[in-house]
């Protein structure tokens, strides 16, 4: 049996301090300074545990580059722009975006690139991928990025931020916890006492959930940082992730290892632990601090509106038959609504300073689900 130092540490913590909230367990699985999943490895690609949209096709990053250009023009083409990426993987998306932006020398010259990445293995990969890029800096947190007009890209970033899970009981909502069963294995449980007045702030849809229902929520701090930054310093943020348009009950806490779903309690630190993103909650938090919200819309709709079909056709025209087939398959994967496609499972939300009234691929009129 393989050594599981993080599992042993989590069990020791539970024995000494009592059942552990799901958010704390998730935080340790991903960010433990020695054994955390995101601190110690390159999780991407065929050899890793999952594949992200930029790894599927160059078109994804190129179109985000062109989207950045359209926002820059709407901002009045400032002579200085910070292009910030949160959780930039191997640097693939940024490399593709910058290649598309080279056709606009005034913007390309204006760019200062900021990569927010805590994983030293991925930082090395990013540095190698972007070795020809000038004006590039790495940071542990967006708090460390200097002020200034910014475009912020966050692809599959919010899904790994720790969630609180609440379980509906007859007498209220109880925090879901991790405890140790009689056989010494981890299992889910619930705090003995309900969280006082928790249902007061819940959306009506969730308030009506039956006994046994699970509701997930994330603190608003991270999205409020992005929203406050673009509100005060000019610019926009684009959040792309898998999740739901409206706040609702449901257990989406999951683990992926080697491209396959696995038990999130089985091997802490050795699998990617995530949960779906509540886009209505993100939008509400951004609006609460006075930023403008655009969308959310599905990834398929967004990519089609910003021209992925035209880009695919242009690439296919110059490609060999084999490469042309790969491009068609990638297009389908990014935009399709079926089980194997990312088109409807992934959503896209724009957040901007209030004067940017319409943003490419998103518009206020297309806001799904309203505020209800």
From TrEMBL:
Keywords: Methyltransferase, Transferase. The keyword Transcription regulation does not apply. It holds the Pfam family Methyltransf_28. GO terms for molecular function: protein-arginine omega-N symmetric methyltransferase activity. InterPro entries: NDUFAF7 (IPR003788), NDUFAF7_sf (IPR038375), SAM-dependent_MTases_sf (IPR029063). One of its GO terms (biological process) is methylation. This is SAM-dependent MidA family methyltransferase.
